[in-house]
Amino acid sequence: MPSVRDRVRVPFFRYPHVFAQHRVEIERALLGAAQSGAYILQADLRAFEDELAAFCGVRWAVGVGNATDGLELNLRVAGVGPNSEVLLPAHTFVATAGAVVAVGATPVFAEIGPDHLIDATDLEPRITPRTRAIMPTQLNGRTADMDAIGAVAERHGLAIVEDSAQGLGSRFCGRMAGTFGVAGVFSFYPAKVLGALGDGGAVITNDDDTARALRELRDHGRDEHSGEVVRWGRNSRLDTLQAAVLRVKLRYVGDEIARRRELARRYAHNLGGVWEVLLPPPPDVAPGDPHLDVFQNYEIEAERRDELRACLAERGVGTLLQWGGKGVHQFPALGIRQRLPRTEAILARSLMLPMNTSLTDDEVDYASEQIREFYGAR
User: What's the pTM value of the predicted model, to 2 decimals?
Assistant: First the structure.
């Protein structure tokens, strides 16, 4: 008789689904872009930038090679450089802090709150005369409390540089992630809510000068009209092939978000009575909730986390420790000497369950059932 693992498998993510979900339209778009011979900074990219800006409700979107580059360019435009400090959470991808280091600045980490996002109340104690910016990470498809963060930034004259790599489509008080600072950054890594067939990113802004500077910086510092080199820049251009794919997928991003929210409701219903598991806030948690989450990830906190993960693996359910279960400050090779007890305690319990539109209701129910059985829930 086959084992449970042989009969049922719920992978953490099905990467072939990124292509297969809209295969016919993506094939048509790729063929058209390939046959056009227009591969760099051409029509499909301009069209995608216009469509993304319209989706986000801003004037400009600037396609870049990846979100890491977008963060670095955004910091440069904001005037962050050597002898500067930037406040950010440690529960983020190393690229967020890496962008700060790349411009010659120093990352200073603040604690996170129960929602796994940067805690605005922990910002002011960490501000020094060198602090130039706050970089909130809109993690797991949830936007941080930008009213509180914005108030701190305004009191101290700090820029807000939004790492919205995981936040596209999420909202706080009706405003889209990425629109709270001068500019915000998105990632189009394949597993994202809006995923390409490779790397890609974009920066969105309402500021004309910021958009112009970003377009120059991504293309070796060249003026986009004359071709004259007007500043030092770099090569970080979202190519036409990825832009063509993203144009197709952007048309369905509303459906993508709606399905993820359905799956989150299902997890919440299935696991709501398991006291050993702390779930993310479910969609529509209460009337007047300022958050609209898109559930890029479904990150729980669990008692006996490692034992649970091993049990789920044995029963065919894929899980993931985000960032390998460490905050950026916990990687010894980076030489960061900060302790963040609250962040470390949360990360020691955190576990990501499968969350993507390839999942069926039955697969979510199966994964939930294994968790309930592990804890002996009735």
Answer: 0.95
